Amino acid sequence: MLHAVEVDQLSVSYFETTALERLSVRLTSGQLIGIIGPNGAGKSTFIKAIMGLIPAEATSIRLLGQSAKQARTQVAYVPQRSAIDWDFPIRVIDAVLIGCYPQLGLFKRPTKQHRMRARACLDRVGMLDYADRQIGELSGGQQQRVFLARALAQEADLLLLDEPFVGVDAGSEGVIIDLLRVLRDEGKTILVVHHDLSKAADYFDTLLLLNRRIISVGPPQDVLHADLIEAAYGNPLAFLQKVEVSS
């Protein structure tokens, strides 16, 4: 069985505060995987740590059977919208072309073929008509679709999305989750940091529930149990109206 993500004894600390503590997990390829847990649980930290974007200690981190450095061109990352400067003057098509840069090499410019790929990716997320717009002119949902198109342009096998549904309209959320399902069916592996438990069972094949440590990992029906939710969130009562929790 091929694992897209293999992590052994991963720990991350910020200023003597433990963000993640000795996480070990294997995540199977070809799945749509939701990373859930309360605010401050280390969900985004986990994504950044396995990519090597922040300092971390680990016995081993392997992505697609390789080190994070070796797998770099095969891993696409979509950060939280709040981490992006939307006032930066860049057109939508040029933002998507950035996804082609890992394959270009140093000092090389995108070719006609790269531009065709970028337009095809925009078309796939329903944003081709906005190709020449400034990205700051778009709505939150439209901006998130553009960044997903950028990830598609990279032609990566592993996609890591940090809270892609925050601040997006229902139409864009539907487009994004439908496309993620198609990508999964094409053999891609997608990890999504997600906060809405009411949709977790419908959206994901596997859930990784954590709060600084791994509480549970597995199919949604095995993870969304009252005792596990309580272990992660401290009190499940606030979520019982949002998610059908097995007792």
TrEMBL record:
Xref: CDD domains: ABC_Metallic_Cations
Top-level lineage group: Bacteria
SUPFAM superfamilies, per database record: P-loop containing nucleoside triphosphate hydrolases
UniProt keyword list: ATP-binding, Nucleotide-binding, Transport
GO MF, any single term: ATP binding
Pfam family, one: ABC_tran
Gene3D superfamilies: P-loop containing nucleotide triphosphate hydrolases (3.40.50.300)
ABC transporter domain: residues covered: 5-237
Assigned protein family: Belongs to the ABC transporter superfamily.
Protein name, per record: ABC transporter related
The organism of origin for this protein: Exiguobacterium sibiricum (strain DSM 17290 / CCUG 55495 / CIP 109462 / JCM 13490 / 255-15)
